[in-house]
Recover the amino acids of this structure.
């Protein structure tokens, strides 16, 4: 499976080497996940799927 995915796994190598660490890091993704969890814990339930999607969209625009 890894051999089949080697092009995807090594895609970061096409960028300048000074950017590799940032690209490989999951910190930004983990931060977004924590922020989403924090905000949904407060809300508990969204009134509709559209409201949930809007909350996620607004969060992304604010740079969370």
């Amino acid at each position: 499976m890894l051999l089949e995915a080697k092009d995807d796994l090594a895609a970061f190598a096409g960028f300048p080497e000074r950017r590799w660490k940032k690209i490989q890091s999951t910190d930004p993704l983990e931060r977004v996940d924590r922020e989403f969890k924090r905000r949904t814990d407060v809300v508990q339930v969204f009134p509709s799927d559209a409201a949930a999607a809007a909350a996620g969209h607004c969060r992304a625009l604010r740079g969370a």
Notes: Helices lie at 6-9, 20-24, 27-43, 49-61. Residues 59-64 have pLDDT under 50 and may be disordered.
